[in-house]
Design a protein that fits this description.
- It is a single chain.
- This protein has a 5-stranded parallel sheet, sandwiched between helices.
- It is an alpha/beta fold.
Length: 212
């Protein structure tokens, strides 16, 4: 059995845009990925660690525990041995309360990669390969979350390219989710049901070779 940890935010948690409801596991992209890989003959278990509002390395001034670095090393220790860790974070770095840009978020991803690789796992357990997934670009935020993400569509410009560069430097795998899907037309930030399906299938294809 191969074990994959998805470390992410509400885009992977499966929030239904403009609601506080959640898609079922088989509808969320990590679930779609697991089902696709198992259908292809791989024995895979996907562990979801997806927290709404999680940043790469910054705190939320209104909600505790949204800093992606907090407890990450222990999560790797808890779930080891792992065959793959998938990081998909960055969208919340561009909330209206933060004056961040793509370069700053890429440095946050780099810090998460370093933390995963230095986690205190048992001596005989492998350091897992890492796949960084750049989330789709924010569109004009709409609905109840519009004030929270105001201006995010401008601050996130260049995120995929910035992530690609740091992944090359850090020698870890990279995928641009924006190459196969956009963010939701409903709220401009999250993923719709069909977009989860598309992304899950795409990440499954990439993961096949990483898990072989």
């Amino acid at each position: 059995m191969k074990h994959v940890l998805v470390y992410s935010d509400s885009l992977s948690w499966g929030i239904i845009p403009s609601t506080r409801k959640r898609l079922h596991f088989e509808q969320r992209w990590p679930g779609v990925m697991e089902i696709s890989l198992c259908a292809a003959g791989l024995k895979v278990r996907v562990v979801e660690d997806c927290l709404n509002g999680r940043r790469t390395v910054w705190d939320d001034p209104f909600k505790p525990g949204r800093n992606g670095l907090a407890g990450l090393a222990q999560r790797i220790e808890i779930h080891s041995p792992l065959d793959l860790v998938i990081l998909m974070l960055g969208t919340n770095d561009f909330q209206s309360m933060h004056e961040h840009n793509a370069w700053l978020s890429s440095q946050g991803i780099l810090a998460l990669v370093s933390t995963i690789r230095s986690a205190p796992i048992e001596p005989d357990m492998p350091v897992p390969p890492i796949l960084v997934v750049a989330p789709p670009a924010i569109q004009t935020p709409k609905g109840p979350i519009a004030p929270k993400f105001q201006g995010g569509e401008h601050k996130c410009v260049g995120l995929a390219d910035a992530y690609r560069r740091v992944c090359e430097e850090a020698n870890c795998h990279f995928f641009d989710a924006g190459s196969v899907t956009t963010s939701s037309e409903v709220d401009g930030v999250h993923l719709d049901l069909e977009q989860h399906f598309i992304l899950g299938k795409a990440v499954a294809e990439i993961s096949k070779s990483l898990l072989a």
